[in-house]
């Protein structure tokens, strides 16, 4: 149903006590705060999340931030919706409630207690994984109770591979703190274990391990620790293998490109990505990525184009230049910036690629780019590329470009 229901639109007045005191709209998931006042969950949660510690209506302090579902009021609202169906009012669905904090605490204690049986711990972990997958609200509740610390302890224990893999599956749903990333990245044995899981027979285990490794690399500030992780040849080979997994498992592509990009941020080991086949994987799958992942893939392409091995490998792929030219101004401002930067590196290294870029229409794309609302960095790269390609332009292309004036676009 619409977010706002006005009496004039429906010919029916929404009862005052059915409206949230914050949004003044019909409540869809009414909850009671510590003062006894009821609010819509979607309104009171952001209020609390921004640091407010008082009840918006009564102004009394909230000493307990637990939100209790007001089932009675929600049912009354649903009955009112049904009764006014003829006015265009749709019945609000029964909301799925977030995980119960008491249950979450109990499951974490059960999973983390080594004196419990393996079956009991495994059951608790599987219930936690189910809750984590249901909603972001559940993940927020779970992370409140030091869940990551408990799960990391289980993951790197030697009790049971089943327990390890269940904890890994849950951890892949959560971002790690800087200290937690350091806890993993500073221990070679832990990195070696996660790397070994990249070759597991299950694609889910591979992807979960790649997700956690990406999380650790991205969240580790120490250049030494990041370099230590990315120095292993097999880590790139296995990440590229995940990236090449069939499209029937889109999460593999999403996690694969995130992990590859994070690893390629370590400059001294980018050549390992090239040797592992990252160039072919990136170009062959570039058209399959969603927008955000396409941006990350193009950023990775630009990073790899900055090293001789990467530049040579991309130059050898017949689709590299046509694809990069086609992407300009098509996906997003960021994608345009990265594609232009990659073309600049490639054309700077090869006269053959300069001619190829001009042949497939880069001139028109760059002229449009410098006159667009794209980022200043993208425009600067476009100007540098235009200057580089000056001698490669067909003379008739310059004469036929009514909008192009050399001195206005590129400071030669």
Automatic annotation (TrEMBL):
GO terms for molecular function: ubiquitin protein ligase activity. Keywords: Transferase, Ubl conjugation pathway. SUPFAM superfamilies: ARM repeat, RING/U-box. It comes from the Eukaryota. Residues 13-87 form the U-box domain. It is an enzyme of class 2 (transferase). Its EC number is 2.3.2.27. The keyword Iron does not apply. It catalyses: S-ubiquitinyl-[E2 ubiquitin-conjugating enzyme]-L-cysteine + [acceptor protein]-L-lysine = [E2 ubiquitin-conjugating enzyme]-L-cysteine + N(6)-ubiquitinyl-[acceptor protein]-L-lysine. Pathway: Protein modification; protein ubiquitination. Pfam families: ARM_PUB, U-box. GO terms for biological process: defense response; protein ubiquitination. PANTHER family: U-BOX DOMAIN-CONTAINING PROTEIN 26, WDSAM1 PROTEIN. Functions as an E3 ubiquitin ligase. This is U-box domain-containing protein. It comes from Tagetes erecta.
């Amino acid at each position: 149903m619409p977010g706002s229901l006005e009496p004039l639109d429906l010919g029916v007045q929404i009862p005052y006590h059915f409206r949230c005191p914050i949004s003044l709209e019909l409540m869809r998931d009414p909850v009671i705060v510590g003062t006894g006042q009821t609010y819509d969950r979607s309104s009171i949660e952001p209020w609390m999340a921004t640091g407010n510690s008082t009840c918006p209506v009564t102004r009394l302090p909230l000493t307990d931030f637990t939100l209790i579902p007001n089932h009675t009021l929600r049912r009354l609202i649903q009955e009112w919706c049904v009764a006014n169906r003829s006015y265009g009012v749709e019945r609000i669905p029964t909301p799925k409630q977030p995980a119960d904090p008491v249950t979450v605490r109990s499951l974490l204690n059960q999973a983390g207690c080594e004196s419990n049986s393996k079956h009991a711990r495994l059951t608790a972990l599987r219930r936690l994984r189910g809750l984590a997958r249901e909603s972001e609200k559940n993940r927020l509740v779970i992370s409140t109770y030091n869940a990551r610390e408990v799960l990391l302890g289980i993951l790197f224990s030697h009790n049971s591979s089943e327990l390890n893999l269940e904890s890994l599956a849950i951890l892949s749903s959560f971002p790690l703190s800087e200290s937690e990333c350091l806890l993993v990245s500073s221990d070679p044995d832990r990195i070696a274990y996660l790397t070994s899981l990249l070759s597991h027979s299950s694609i889910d285990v591979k992807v979960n391990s790649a997700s956690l490794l990406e999380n650790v690399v991205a969240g580790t500030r120490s250049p030494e620790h990041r370099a230590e992780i990315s120095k292993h040849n097999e880590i790139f080979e296995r990440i590229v293998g995940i990236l090449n997994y069939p499209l029937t498992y889109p999460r593999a592509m999403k996690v694969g490109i995130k992990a590859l990009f994070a690893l390629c941020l370590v400059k001294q080991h980018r050549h390992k990505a090239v040797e592992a086949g990252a160039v072919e994987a990136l170009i062959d799958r570039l058209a399959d990525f969603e927008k955000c992942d396409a941006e990350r893939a193009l950023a990775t392409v630009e990073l790899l184009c900055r090293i001789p091995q990467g530049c040579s490998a991309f130059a050898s792929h017949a689709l590299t230049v046509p694809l990069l030219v086609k992407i300009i101004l098509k996906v997003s401002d960021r994608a345009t910036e990265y594609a232009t930067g990659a073309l600049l590196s490639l054309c700077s290294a090869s006269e053959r690629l300069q001619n190829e870029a001009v042949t497939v229409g880069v001139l028109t794309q760059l002229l449009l780019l410098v006159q667009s609302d794209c980022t200043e960095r993208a425009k600067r790269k476009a100007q540098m590329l235009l200057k580089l390609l000056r001698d490669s332009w067909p003379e008739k292309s310059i004469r036929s470009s009514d909008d192009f004036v050399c001195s206005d676009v590129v400071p030669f």
